[in-house]
Amino acid sequence: MRKCLLVVAIISLGFKANAQVDQKASYDFIERVIAGKSNLFAVEAIPQQNGKDAFELESRNGKIVLRGNNGLSIASALNYYLKNYCFCDIGWNGTNLNLPATLPVVKGIIHKTTPYQYRYYLNYCTFNYTMAWWDWERWQKEIDWMALNGINLPLAITGEEAIWQTVYKEMGFTDKQLDEFFSGPAYFSWFWMGNIDAWGGPLPQHWMDSHKALQKKILERERSFGMTPVLSSFTGHVPPSFKDKFPGAKIKRTNWDAGFPDVFILDPDDPMFETIGKKYIEAQTKEFGTDHLYSADTFNENVPPTNDSTYLDGMSKKVFNSMAAADPKAIWVMQGWMFHYNNKFWQPQQIKALLNAVPNEQMIVLDLYSDAHPVWNRTEAYYGKPWIWSMLQNFGGNISLFGRMRHVAADPAIALHDPESKNMRGIGVTPEGIEQNPALFALMLENVWRDNPIDADKWVANYAQRRYGQVNSQAGEAWHMLLNSVYSGGLTEGGPESIIVARPTLKKYIDRVLTKLDYDPMQLAKAWTLLINAADSLKQSDGFQYDLVDVTRQVLANYASPLQQKMAQAYQNKDQQQFKLYSSQFLELMDDMDALLSTRKDFLLGKWINEARANGVTDKEKNLYEFNARDLVTLWGDKESGLREYSNRQWAGLIKGYYKPRWVMYFGLLDKSLSTKTDFNAEAFDKQVKDWEWQWVNKHDNAYTDAAKGDAVEKSKQLFAKYNAIILGTR
């Protein structure tokens, strides 16, 4: 998982590259985006430009003409018009669609051609850290957002488990044997990637059936826009009972080193490997169709058994043959994460052996982490393979303000024009989680229709205007400060976390809760001041409300660290009075953060839990899904899990209902040790807190609401009045 992988592929031949524009579908799309306005637009078709997607804009007879070579280009034309002529913005966390009464005229003809043949979206992890409980309504909104932003290569792995059920049952495996294989819905990403079996299960049949049907809707809609979805393939992961059913098979045990039992991988040398791979793609194609793109990675954070080039070459050929046996047009999609994650193993000789075993046009590599740790520039651009420059963000679905905006603004175009980038075919957005840091994603996707670097300073000023619906000098200045602080992130695996989400400690940080800031927190505090000052003018903007809450949250989350250290110092000094003062202030800060986050649906634990429960049709199913939802964002496993807090979230409900009680328990024991002048029993606390956490994960008490409450702007102002002077005093 650390960090999750993702796979994508691109094909240069064989796509329906010049898909027809479906007039009805395009008008239906416009109506979904701006209800009641579709009659103000005309939709027309134009051909691709030099094999690339293109769109045009023009005013004619009182209407805005949107032209494109497919539905995706039509959608991109609409988005370009809304952003650049109406100063509107469509995003996850606040949308501004206050169109002028009369639509602005387009002078002349605006023509745009993308320099990138492929624009990839999603990460295996996104399907769980954010999308685990999505229904069709939510998926439809996301696919529309993808189309607006020019994405044409979405990873599409919903419903994969239903195909595996078909394949393995045809091979004679029983439901009981498969119950020991399939994970719960919140853990599919790591089941699909061959890291874990069964955790969070057993998986109900209703889930299999309903999500197979959901995947068909997703694929139909994506393809209707002219997108080419990336499906899955066989990487060797087999049920634990496989070794008993086929005792002669070459199977190796492997372990992800994250506290879960071994999983079983069928060796590509075994003749059954190609047979199963062929069966899977045939069954998948029967249900879902195909665009000939298949993700596959046999070494997700696992080291191969040998670094021998002959072995790696042979293995690579066999994995590809398992696809090509069912689909001669198959393109192997390989992600480059392992070349970064296990870079000591993957030296040039090993990488070449793996890549060169497959023809160039039948393998695509996703450079997963180009914005921080590019691999293309130390592998001769993947030795000639087509590859995609990608932005990896938001590890574990955490919500810290974070990003490398200036790199995202400039580096894709710089790489595109670098002779050393060779066969760079596109750009990608590959987050572990979404629905946070919307500006970062919007900036990255600004690259889709241009081939020159973006001026990040000008862009954030324009973004603030679009998002808030008006020019506001203080908001513009605040965004400039955000660009140069939280959005000038270092080479860390995501943003810094707050000490409040850690299992209680006197230390500044613990494993998976790293609190070191790589920016000046006073710059963020100044941006907060500017947004507060702009609040009366901008408070009607939904996007502004979200941003104000998010910045307030981050300022308070940062302040928790010096406050916790004051508490720790008081305890170490055996100053009980000061200890009680700082520990009570720390708990009060958590209550304040919870109340703040309660004002926005974006930050509610109850929304996450209730959406999970909504997928079940029986109480047993609903309770299973709630366990999955609670466990993923807390323990990420059992009570001894080494991955706890990996997917921590600063959410209302989670702060007051989970993080705070742990600190209350801890402070009570520390206070008792001061009162009795005895040593703190860390071992006893460890057992006590683990038991409490496990009980919380297994609750079904309907304790958390999915309805926002309170006024986001007023609550932010109250907390500013309470904390600003104190925080500035911590300089």
TrEMBL record:
Task: List, for all copies, the residue spans of the domain called Alpha-N-acetylglucosaminidase N-terminal.
Answer: 25-104
The Gene Ontology terms for molecular function here are: hydrolase activity
Q: What Gene Ontology biological process does one annotation of this record name? A: carbohydrate metabolic process
Task: Enumerate the spans annotated as Alpha-N-acetylglucosaminidase C-terminal domain.
Answer: 459-722
Q: List UniProt keywords, sorted A-Z.
A: Hydrolase, Signal
Check the UniProt entry and state the signal peptide residues, or none. Answer: 1-19
The family database entries (Gene3D superfamilies) matched by this protein are listed as: Chitobiase/beta-hexosaminidase domain 2-like, Glycosidases, N-acetyl-b-d-glucoasminidase
Annotated ranges, domain Alpha-N-acetylglucosaminidase tim-barrel: 119-450
Q: What is this protein called?
A: Alpha-N-acetylglucosaminidase
The record lists the lineage as:
Bacteria, Pseudomonadati, Bacteroidota, Sphingobacteriia, Sphingobacteriales
